[in-house]
Automatic annotation (TrEMBL):
Protein name: Glutamine-dependent NAD(+) synthetase
GO cellular component terms listed in the entry, alphabetical order: cytoplasm
Residues involved in ATP binding: 337-344, 438
Pathway note: Cofactor biosynthesis; NAD(+) biosynthesis; NAD(+) from deamido-NAD(+) (L-Gln route): step 1/1
Source organism of the structure: Catellatospora chokoriensis
Gene: nadE
Length: 583
C-alpha cells in the first residue's frame, strides 16, 4: 500500500524582524495550499523571523517574541479553518541562554528550528543539526545543534500511513547526520527547509546535491528555499522535489514567489521501524492526528521551471537585492550620479527594473573634463528608461575650492568626486532619496575610487560584479530591450577627472585584471600560484599591492548584493592593519 501525499512548498519572501508580517504571509500561503488540496505545506528556514537574524539571537526579547508568534500562528491557522493542514515553518527557538563566553559549549541555547503546526498547536519541532560556519555563515556563533531527528507519521482515511522526516538547510549540504539517520529510520520523505543564499551557478550544484541526499536517505526529498534580498544576500528560490531514485519531479522558478503543489506516492510506514539512537542522532517519532483523504481527480504536478542563463541569473539577483534593500528599509526612491559611463548606466538600468523609472533620479554632474559624448550618453540613458534626469554642473564649485586651497594632481581629481558626493547627499537629504554608488568589484579590489567621493552611498548594486561582467550584463539587458546606450558600452572606460584620462592609464586591461583578482580575491591564491598560471610576475606584484593597500577603503564601502562565491564583506574578512605581503 502507498499513501498519496499532496505536498506544497511555499517559496516566499519574508523580512527579518517582521514577525507579524511574516506570520500573515504564512496564513495567506497556507490558505492557498489548502485550496489546492495540500496535506502539508512547508515554508523556508526561519520563516517567522526572517533570515539571517544575526545578533538579534542574543536578545532574549526577540527570542521570546519568536516563540510567542509561533504559538499565535498555530491558533490563527486553526481559526482560519486550516487546522487539518500540517504547516511546517522555521522560527527562532531557545532552550537556554545565548551562547557567549566560557560556556559556549553548553548543550542548551538558541536554536535554528522548525515547527509543524496542526490543529491549533505545535505538534512537532526539530532543531537544525549541521551548523555552517563558513562564507557568510556564522551559525556556530549563534546556535546550539540539535541531536534528534523528528519523524512525523501521518495517516489517511483509508488506513495508509507514511513517515516524513524534518530537516533544515545545512543538514542537506553535508553527508551523514540527519539524512543517513532518515535511512535507518525508514522514512518515505525528507522535507528540508532552507535559507540558501544565491551565488552564480549555485542552482547547478543544488540538484545533484538533493539527488545525493535522496540516495543516502533512500527516500524522496522536498527542498524549499526562500526568495528575496536581505542586506548583501539574495535568495533565489529554486525549490524542488526529487524522488528516492533521483528523478527530478518538480522545480520552482528562480527569484519569484511560487507555491509548488505536487502529489507524492510514499511507501507505507513500517510499523517496526526502529526508534531511539540510530547512528549519530536520536529519532523522535511523532504521530499526527490526521485522517487525510486521498486526493481525487488529476494528480497535482508542480512542473519543472526553466533555468536562467548566467547573465539573466545575475541580473535578477541584482534587481531583487536592490528592490528589497530599498523597500524593506522603508525608502521609496533612489538617486545616483549618471555619468554616461558603463557602470552608472548599468546601475541605473538595475534601479529602473527594480523600482520603476518614476522612483529613480539620475544626476549628471559634468566638470570641465567631462566629454560631450558622456553627457550625451547620460541624457540618452534617461530618455531610454524614462528616469528623472537632472544636470548639475560642478566646475564652478570645484573652482571655488581651488581658489581657497592649493591643490594639484590627484587631489584635484578627488576633489571633483567629492563635490559630486556632496551634491548627491544634499539631494538625498532634501528629497529623501537613497543614494546608490556605482563602483564595481574590480575597482573596489584595487582601490580605484575616491573615498567619500564616488564611493559614497547607501547601497552598491555592482559591489560584487567584476568589470568584465558589467559589460556582459549591459549587452544581455539590451537584448531584452534597449535601455543602455551602445556608446556607453563600447567606449573605453574613463573617470574623466583629467584631460584624456582612461582607466588603462592606472590599471591593466580589465580582462587581465579580473583574471588575477579572481585567483587572489575569490580563490585565495598566493603570488606563486598566480604566476604559475601564466600571469606576468610584475603585474601580479602590482595588483596584489593595490588590493592589500585598499582594505581600509573596502571596510568603509556601502553594502552591495553578493553574487559570487566570495564577495567583499561577509565572505572575505581581512585585517586592515596587516604587514603580510605575498612575495
Amino acid at each position: 500500500m502507498t499513501a498519496t501525499l499532496r505536498l506544497a512548498l511555499a517559496q516566499v519572501n519574508p523580512t527579518v524582524g517582521d514577525l507579524a508580517g511574516n506570520a500573515a504571509m504564512v496564513r495567506e500561503w497556507s490558505a492557498r495550499a489548502a485550496e489546492a488540496g495540500a496535506h502539508i505545506v512547508a515554508f523556508p528556514e526561519m520563516m517567522l523571523t526572517g533570515y539571517p537574524v544575526e545578533d538579534l539571537v542574543f536578545r532574549q526579547s526577540f527570542v521570546e517574541a519568536s516563540q510567542q508568534a509561533l504559538v499565535r500562528l498555530a491558533a490563527d491557522l486553526a481559526a482560519d479553518g486550516l487546522g487539518d493542514l500540517a504547516v511546517i515553518v522555521g522560527f527562532l527557538d531557545a532552550d537556554g541562554p545565548a551562547r557567549l563566553g566560557a560556556d559556549s559549549t553548553s548543550p542548551v541555547g538558541p536554536r535554528d528550528s522548525l515547527a509543524l503546526l496542526h490543529r491549533g498547536v505545535v505538534a512537532a519541532h526539530y532543531h537544525k543539526h549541521h551548523l555552517p560556519n563558513y562564507g557568510v555563515f556564522d551559525e556556530d556563533r549563534y546556535f546550539v545543534p540539535g541531536d534528534t531527528l523528528t519523524v512525523v507519521r501521518a495517516q489517511w482515511a483509508d488506513g495508509s500511513q507514511a513517515d516524513v522526516a524534518l530537516t533544515i538547510c545545512e543538514d542537506i549540504w553535508q553527508a551523514g547526520g540527519p539524512f543517513a539517520v532518515a535511512a535507518s529510520a525508514r522514512v518515505g520523505l525528507v522535507i528540508n527547509i532552507n535559507g540558501s543564499p544565491y551565488e552564480l551557478n549555485k542552482d547547478d550544484v543544488r540538484l545533484p546535491l538533493v539527488q545525493r541526499r535522496a540516495a543516502e536517505a533512500g527516500a524522496a526529498v522536498a527542498y524549499v528555499n526562500m526568495i528575496g534580498g536581505q542586506d548583501e544576500l539574495t535568495f533565489d528560490g529554486d525549490s524542488m522535489i526529487v524522488a528516492a531514485d533521483g528523478t527530478l519531479l518538480a522545480r520552482g522558478p528562480q527569484f519569484h514567489q511560487a507555491l509548488l503543489v505536487h502529489d507524492l506516492h510514499l511507501p507505507e510506514a513500517d510499523p517496526d521501524a526502529p526508534v531511539g539512537h540510530l547512528g549519530t542522532m536520536r529519532v523522535a517519532r511523532i504521530p499526527l492526528t490526521t485522517s487525510w483523504a486521498t486526493p481525487e481527480g488529476p494528480a497535482a504536478d508542480a512542473g519543472i521551471a526553466d533555468r536562467l542563463g548566467d547573465e539573466a541569473e545575475v541580473w535578477n539577483a541584482l534587481v531583487m537585492g536592490l528592490r528589497d534593500y530599498v523597500r524593506k528599509n522603508g525608502a521609496k526612491s533612489v538617486l545616483l550620479g549618471l555619468s554616461g559611463g558603463i557602470d552608472s548606466s548599468v546601475v541605473a538600468a538595475i534601479a529602473v527594473d527594480a523600482l520603476g523609472a518614476e522612483h529613480v533620479v539620475g544626476v549628471s554632474m559634468p566638470s570641465g573634463h567631462s566629454s560631450q559624448h558622456s553627457r550625451d550618453d547620460a541624457a540618452e540613458m534617461a530618455r531610454l528608461t524614462g528616469l528623472d534626469y537632472r544636470v548639475e554642473p560642478i566646475q564652478h564649485m570645484v573652482d571655488a575650492f581651488l581658489s581657497n586651497l592649493n591643490l594639484s594632481g590627484l587631489a584635484v581629481e578627488n576633489l571633483q568626486a567629492r563635490v559630486r558626493a556632496v551634491i548627491l547627499m544634499a539631494l538625498s537629504n532634501q528629497e529623501g532619496h537613497l543614494v546608490l554608488t556605482t563602483g564595481n568589484k574590480s575597482e573596489l579590489a584595487v582601490g580605484y575610487s575616491t573615498l567619500y567621493g564616488d564611493s559614497v552611498g547607501a547601497f552598491n548594486p555592482l559591489k560584487d560584479v567584476p568589470k568584465t561582467l558589467v559589460w556582459k550584463l549591459a549587452h544581455w539587458r539590451n537584448t531584452v530591450g534597449e535601455v543602455i546606450p551602445e556608446s556607453s558600452i563600447t567606449k573605453p572606460p574613463s573617470a574623466e577627472l583629467r584631460p584624456g584620462q582612461l582607466d588603462t592609464d592606472s590599471l591593466p586591461p580589465y580582462d587581465q585584471l579580473d583574471a588575477i583578482l579572481a585567483g587572489y580575491v575569490d580563490g585565495d591564491q598566493g603570488r606563486d600560484e598566480l604566476v604559475a598560471e601564466g600571469h606576468d610576475p610584475a603585474l601580479v606584484d602590482r595588483i596584489l599591492r593595490l588590493v592589500d593597500g585598499a582594505e581600509y577603503k573596502r571596510r568603509q564601502s556601502a553594502p552591495g548584493t553578493k553574487i559570487s562565491f566570495k564577495a567583499f564583506g561577509r565572505d572575505r574578512r581581512l585585517p586592515i592593519t596587516n604587514r603580510w605581503r605575498e612575495s
